[in-house]
Specification:
The protein is of the alpha+beta class. It contains three helices and four strands; from the N terminus they run E-H-E-H-E-E-H. A four-stranded mixed beta sheet has the order 2-1-3-4. Helix 1 links the parallel strand 1 and strand 2. The relative contact order is 0.28.
Length: 77
């Protein structure tokens, strides 16, 4: 099971990113643990300045802007 965290303070892009990741995992039948991190200190702890940020299994894989479906699919493999 992949552990995925979406980093962001609650902006529309962060919410969209969370939704897209959840939908992609369900479409592929992949179980994930999806978490939303809104604490600015926790976000900065990952070195993310531009949100939304995405962390997969402890590694930052994206920062800034809504990721595309192809990119999300790659994270779920």
């Amino acid at each position: 099971m992949k552990n995925i965290k979406v980093l962001g303070t609650g902006c529309a892009s962060c919410k969209t990113t969370l939704k897209l990741i959840d939908e992609a995992a369900k479409e592929k039948g992949i179980k994930i643990q999806l978490e939303k991190i809104e604490d600015i200190r926790a976000i900065m702890g990952y070195g993310v300045i531009s949100t939304p940020g995405v962390v997969v299994d402890g590694k930052v894989v994206h920062a800034g802007g809504v990721p595309g479906r192809d990119k999300i699919a790659g994270w779920l493999q």
